[in-house]
Specification:
Elements: H1 4-51, H2 57-83, H3 109-129, H4 136-159, H5 192-210, H6 231-248, H7 261-294, H8 301-315, H9 324-348, H10 357-375, H11 378-385, H12 407-437, H13 444-449, H14 451-455, E1 464-465, E2 470-471, H15 488-510
Antiparallel strand pairs: 1-2
Membrane topology: Multi-pass membrane protein
Family: Belongs to the ammonia transporter channel (TC 1.A.11.2) family.
Subcellular location: Cell membrane; Membrane
């Protein structure tokens, strides 16, 4: 007969090993998700590079790289502390401890890595909206400011157990409970508001104060299209972003075992359906509008790409608390929000946004926050957020379309408006200071020639000149010998003529 003490000890050891395995698997899942989110940096880089003119591609690539670098340093120094995501006794507005990770347990370091990837994504959203005319110094200063202070404040509101809008508000050490906003707290599972709205609103503030690119509007204020130079690159970026979203949304469960796997699987499904429906509806709606206005039909891949991204942004807040059917509806409405927002920005407000970041992330992000208050089901809200602490029934508020009343929707509205006010105010003041100091925008001469030539070491495409992608002839190719020969002047004249021709070709295609 086995010794009872020995048997008990074996049971304890087995339980400990099982518990440790759970921690290890969840940690591995979150770290893997963070790597997928970092892949989104490559997606943003390709999307923005392809959406600008060739003479500005090298500079925008550098800015995207610097986002990842600056975000790492600033989120270590101040961002994590301001966010206060693991601290339950901080104030409701801003985190007050764990700056430079001081006091953060080693077993929780994976949380910093995951949240750093989110911070870098929020920062990068702005790069495309400011493309082709913002100075590098201004962009670096912006990156430091938004990562070090503006962005983490919003994440504290919504994801910290102390945040005033958070659905995670928890029991205090003295046994009292923090009241939830409208008895509910706001739902922003993966960041339609905390990430995408922050980036979109900041992009709006920056682009508005920068002003439009040279030649973007005619004398009557009518927009003149300035197409990007590489559609393939931009669509590659879209696919990379979509793939990265499978770390962004499912990873926000912060675990995959002990009950998390069902949530993670559902989030993968809702994310996929919203992105797909957004891309389809945007493409067909754009074709219908185009046919009604001009009688022509053009299947525009860039419109479809941005529509898919808008669908993904829209579902990011409610992805864990909605049904697959609701995800399709949210993606469809997100497509219309994107198209309407894009038109409003370019034609009414005359805000020049080369990549439509404001419409994709700002406007669609707002819709995503509101959608959580309408489509979240009672069962899924309870599964993800648990019961309400300190109440008799513990029942969570849920979506208005499912009979949950208006409390959750009211919380979503207050949270959404607060993000707009905070980010718009702080970033508007910041960009206004840079503009007043004369360091926000490059000179007209630099902008007209392209920033790459004078600021970033030349073209991203060596041996290729102009905007139409015309290969410049070399002396050897023309049988003229060395370029320093007596025929050098003739060769340089020919080069100038080819460059002038390429600019004219671009000008002609830009008006089509």
């Amino acid at each position: 007969m086995a010794d009872p003490a020995t048997a008990f000890q074996e049971q304890v050891e087995e339980a400990f090993l099982a518990s440790q395995a759970t921690v290890d698997l969840n940690t591995f899942f979150v770290i893997t998700s963070a790597i997928f989110v970092l892949i989104m940096q490559a997606g943003f880089c390709m999307l923005t590079a392809g959406s600008v003119r060739a003479r500005n591609a090298r500079g925008i690539i550098l800015k995207n790289l610097m986002d990842a670098c600056v975000a790492a340093i600033m989120y270590f120094l101040t961002g994590w502390g301001v966010a206060g995501l693991l601290v339950g006794d901080a104030n409701s507005f801003i985190g007050t401890s764990q700056y430079t990770l001081n006091g953060l347990d080693a077993s929780a370091l994976y949380n910093w890595f995951f949240q750093y990837a989110f911070a870098a994504a929020a920062c990068t959203i702005v790069s495309g909206a400011l493309a082709e005319r913002a100075t590098f110094v201004a962009y670096l200063l912006y990156s430091v400011y938004i990562i070090g202070f503006v962005y983490p404040v919003v994440t504290h509101w919504i994801w910290s157990p102390s945040g005033w809008a958070s659905a995670f508000r928890s029991e205090l050490a003295d046994g009292t409970y923090k009241s939830l906003l409208f008895g509910s707290g706001a739902i922003d599972f993966a960041g339609s508001g905390a990430v995408h709205m922050v980036g979109g609103v900041a992009a709006c503030a920056g682009a508005a104060l920068l002003g439009p690119r040279l030649g973007r509007y005619d004398a009557n204020g009518k927009p003149i299209p300035i197409p990007g130079h590489n559609v393939a690159l931009a669509v590659l970026g879209t696919f990379l972003l979509w793939v990265g979203w499978y770390g962004f949304n499912p990873g926000s469960a912060l675990g995959i075992v002990n009950g998390f796997s069902t949530t993670v699987a559902r989030v993968c499904v809702t994310t996929t359906l919203a992105g797909a429906s957004g891309g389809l509806m945007t493409l067909f709606t754009h074709v219908l509008i185009q046919y009604k206005v001009s009688g022509n039909v053009t299947w525009d891949v860039m419109v479809a790409a941005n529509g898919a991204l808008a669908g993904l942004v829209s579902v990011t807040a409610p992805c864990a608390t909605i049904t697959p059917y609701a995800a399709i509806i949210i993606g469809i409405i997100g497509a219309w929000v994107y198209l309407g927002g894009s038109y409003l920005n370019s034609h009414i407000l005359r805000i020049d946004d080369p990549v439509d970041a404001i419409a994709v992330h700002g406007w669609a992000g707002m819709w995503g926050v509101l959608a959580a208050g309408l489509f979240s089901t009672e069962a899924y809200v309870a599964e993800v957020y648990g019961t309400v602490p300190g109440t008799e029934d513990g029942v969570r508020k849920y979506g208005g379309f499912y009979g949950g009343g208006g409390s959750l929707f009211a919380a979503q509205i207050v949270y959404m408006l607060s993000v707009v006010a905070w980010v718009g105010g702080m970033m508007g003041i910041f960009f206004a200071i840079l503009k007043f100091a004369g360091i926000l925008r490059v000179t007209p001469e630099v902008e007209a020639a392209g920033c790459d030539a004078s600021h970033y070491g030349g073209s991203a495409y060596h041996g290729v000149g102009g905007e139409a992608g015309i290969v410049m002839p070399t002396a050897k190719a023309m049988g003229k010998g060395d370029a320093s020969s007596t025929d050098g002047e003739e060769l340089e004249k020919l080069r100038a003529e080819v460059a002038e021709l390429s600019v004219k070709v671009h000008a002609m295609t830009a008006t089509v």
